[in-house]
Amino acid sequence: MSARGHATGNYALFIGLRYSFSRKRNRFTSVIALVSMLGMVLGVASLLTVLSVMNGFGGELRGRILSLVPHGFVSGDEGIEQWRSLASRIESLDSVLAVSPYISDKVILASGRTLRGAVLTAIDPELQARVSKIPAALIQGSLESLEEPGFSVVLGASLARMLGVRLGDSVQVTVPRLTLTPLGAFPRSKRLTVTGIFEVGAQPDSYQAYIGLRSGQKLLGPASGVDGLQLKTDNLYTAPETMATVARLLPPELGVKDWSQTQGSLFQAVKMEKIMVSLLLLSVVAVAAFNIVSTLVMSVAEKRRDIAVLRTMGARAGGIMAIFVAHGLGLAAVGISLGAVLGVFLSLNISAITVFVENLLGVKLFDPSVYFISKLPSQLMWSDVIAVVTASLLLSLLATVYPARRAARVAPAEVLRYE
């Protein structure tokens, strides 16, 4: 860059920032500038806070649901008879930590006159504990009770509450598989004893039920095989790659899925919701940014004499534009900086602030009996902070273009003629 270019940049930045923070401006212009800055502060702070809360909700949802859902599944249309040998082959992979068999079907559970649809999954309690965290989620009873003689069932807490049953009570299960009798074909039905209740604080609490593998083979079939295998990998986020490797080891008649395929639609919906909320709140930042247009237009009208003097002293149109771009970005940078600091503070302390408000008002904002959470989760991601600050600066830069071009077109001879 030439010496003339350096000089232009230096005086433009100096004069622009002087205009931004001078106390000698018109009072009305000062008020408009202050409102623009406050709008930027609120917009950036609210956007960062909401993004952090949505990150927290996504993390809670992922942690709770995936505590029950294995990382991958291997299944066959006709079931898997020799599942033990297949499980040994799969476990030989370094990236596979554990394998557990399962049989699953949709059923109807009944208690008295109450009927509820559910997903009944037959598991081996010892092997299941290696692929999911269901033992840690039990609030009553034990998973090992499913291996005891008789037909036992472990229910989700919400499902048990809807059925009105507790530990030791019985529920009637009806399976959509027919049993042939001399009187005709009838759905299979069996009375199960509730020996455990689990709670993860997510949707599985309202529909999931577990029985032992041997009970499942008698009730759900197949008699000696299983519907499929559940896998736990060494890394949740590389599970798709691991399952692709598993698929290459298996016969083509066996299907392979990972958690992103079985639960992906839910997390995709959460991600889409975050994007839409971000766009809506970014419009608040955009409104604050374009308030800068009003500030700069009034500032151009107020500084017409200064512009004319600068032009007669040799300032180019580009230099005048740079002055008002620096003027607008100076105002915006202060608002964005304060908003970012406030947003980071709120994101890191929103849970404590929520508890303080609850204690102050004597109300419970998140009742655990109604919601799956008892406090507002938050997870600040610095990538979000960088993205919000960058987007806000770009919007502010865009807002300065029109007033700066208008300032550059001021005719110095016409202005000075009436001075």
From TrEMBL:
<dbReference type="InterPro" id="IPR025857">
    <property type="entry name" value="MacB_PCD"/>
</dbReference>
<dbReference type="InterPro" id="IPR011925">
    <property type="entry name" value="LolCE_TM"/>
</dbReference>
<dbReference type="Pfam" id="PF12704">
    <property type="entry name" value="MacB_PCD"/>
</dbReference>
<keyword id="KW-0813">Transport</keyword>
<keyword id="KW-1133">Transmembrane helix</keyword>
<dbReference type="InterPro" id="IPR003838">
    <property type="entry name" value="ABC3_permease_C"/>
</dbReference>
<dbReference type="InterPro" id="IPR051447">
    <property type="entry name" value="Lipoprotein-release_system"/>
</dbReference>
<feature type="domain" description="MacB-like periplasmic core">
    <location>
        <begin position="34"/>
        <end position="239"/>
    </location>
</feature>
<dbReference type="GO" id="GO:0042953">
    <property type="term" value="P:lipoprotein transport"/>
</dbReference>
<feature type="transmembrane region" description="Helical">
    <location>
        <begin position="382"/>
        <end position="402"/>
    </location>
</feature>
<dbReference type="GO" id="GO:0044874">
    <property type="term" value="P:lipoprotein localization to outer membrane"/>
</dbReference>
<feature type="transmembrane region" description="Helical">
    <location>
        <begin position="28"/>
        <end position="54"/>
    </location>
</feature>
<protein>
    <submittedName>
        <fullName>Lipoprotein-releasing ABC transporter permease subunit</fullName>
    </submittedName>
</protein>
<keyword id="KW-0449">Lipoprotein</keyword>
<dbReference type="Pfam" id="PF02687">
    <property type="entry name" value="FtsX"/>
</dbReference>
<feature type="transmembrane region" description="Helical">
    <location>
        <begin position="313"/>
        <end position="334"/>
    </location>
</feature>
<comment type="similarity">
    <text>Belongs to the ABC-4 integral membrane protein family. LolC/E subfamily.</text>
</comment>
<dbReference type="GO" id="GO:0098797">
    <property type="term" value="C:plasma membrane protein complex"/>
</dbReference>
<keyword id="KW-0472">Membrane</keyword>
<keyword id="KW-0812">Transmembrane</keyword>
<feature type="transmembrane region" description="Helical">
    <location>
        <begin position="275"/>
        <end position="301"/>
    </location>
</feature>
<keyword id="KW-1003">Cell membrane</keyword>
<feature type="domain" description="ABC3 transporter permease C-terminal">
    <location>
        <begin position="280"/>
        <end position="410"/>
    </location>
</feature>
